[in-house]
Write a structure and sequence with these properties.
The chain contains twelve helices and seven strands. With 324 residues, the chain is of the alpha/beta class. It has two domains: 78 residues, no CATH class; 197 residues, no CATH class.
């Protein structure tokens, strides 16, 4: 039996080590992320119950704020819906508030239609946008369980999570799609979600399409600096105009110095910012979607992204390379 691979695939000669410069501040931020001090301000209490709709028939009892608050706690603490109902009820009881708790069936039903606030804009100035995608599991057997017990492959479904991250680690665009959707087509939509000018753009080779370059040129302002590794079979386009000429320059430079050196010169390693965001999503939220329907999964993902941005505001590490 072959031994499990435990070493990194990166050659030690080229593996970069980093040192965190703001460790005391970052350590305090990590502690604050685990602080479960909760309170309901007056606005939240006043907005907990849904206002009359003005239409005939049954009225909603709970506002979107109440539903989102419960679903947010569910994602942070990895709770099933029934335990979420009990957790919120205990908070209200401890605080002595005259509020009712949405039951688990209401939370499940409302998660189809509840409106999740759009991602807050963290910067008004031009940003460095880095995008990437990763897979998240759905209901079904895990890979090990399926192999060990010879269960059906049909139940091992997954979705693809696409994230756009700025230079400070904030998620500025997101999308959840089927596993077979092309990354580049979703990348165009992510660029359209960004509410500010893009000065720099970094992505991996899956986004090496003309549509990506054209959408960046139409973003507003000057054409951004685009760093996307061209395909290994890419050829120089003699009739190209901006921003497609940037791809031509990358192809020529790779032919001169090689792909590894071009990546160092161009800053393609900034792609790691998006990969770090994926790691944080799976480490904090989890690698599996708890919801079953596509609408619920979209809601779950948007809530999770907002949670990660809230945690980022508490503090992020500032690192410097100590060996390259």
């Amino acid at each position: 039996m072959m031994a499990a691979r435990t070493k990194s695939k990166v050659t030690p000669k080229y593996k970069t080590k980093y040192r965190v410069k703001n460790w005391p501040t970052y350590e305090a931020a990590l502690r604050n992320r685990g602080d479960i001090t909760l309170w309901f301000d007056e606005d939240a209490i006043d907005s907990w119950n849904a206002p009359p709709s003005g239409r005939a028939g049954g009225q909603r009892r709970y506002s979107d704020l109440a539903i989102l608050s419960a679903l947010t706690l569910r994602s942070v603490f990895h709770l099933p819906l029934r335990q979420t109902e009990g957790f919120v009820a205990s908070l209200i009881r401890v605080m002595g508030l005259n509020l009712e708790t949405a039951d688990h069936t209401t939370l499940s039903r409302r998660s189809h239609t509840v409106v999740v606030p759009a991602l807050a804009r963290m910067h008004d100035e031009p940003i460095h946008l880095v995008i990437d995608s990763t897979g998240v599991k759905m209901v079904g057997d895990g890979e090990w369980h399926a192999h060990r017990h010879k269960t059906s492959n049909k139940r091992r479904s997954w979705r693809k999570l696409h994230l756009g991250v700025d230079g400070d680690g904030f998620i500025v665009a997101s999308a959840l799609t089927d596993s077979g959707v092309d990354d580049a087509s979703v990348g165009v939509a992510l660029i359209g979600q960004v509410g500010t000018t893009i000065a720099h753009f970094t992505a991996d080779g899956a986004y090496d399409t003309r549509a990506i370059y054209e959408s960046l040129a139409a973003n507003g302002g000057a054409v951004p600096n685009i760093v996307v590794p061209p395909k290994r079979t890419a050829k120089v386009d003699a009739g190209a105009d901006e921003p497609w000429r940037q791809r031509n320059r990358a192809i020529r430079r790779i032919a001169e110095v090689g792909r590894r050196q071009w990546r160092k010169e161009s800053g393609a390693h900034q792609q790691a910012r998006a990969e770090n965001a994926m790691f944080r999503f799976k480490g904090i939220i989890g690698d599996r979607l708890r919801s079953r329907s596509p609408e619920q999964q979209q809601t779950e993902t948007m809530i999770a992204v907002n949670i990660l941005n809230r945690m980022t505001t508490l503090g992020m590490p500032e690192s410097v390379a100590v060996r390259a």
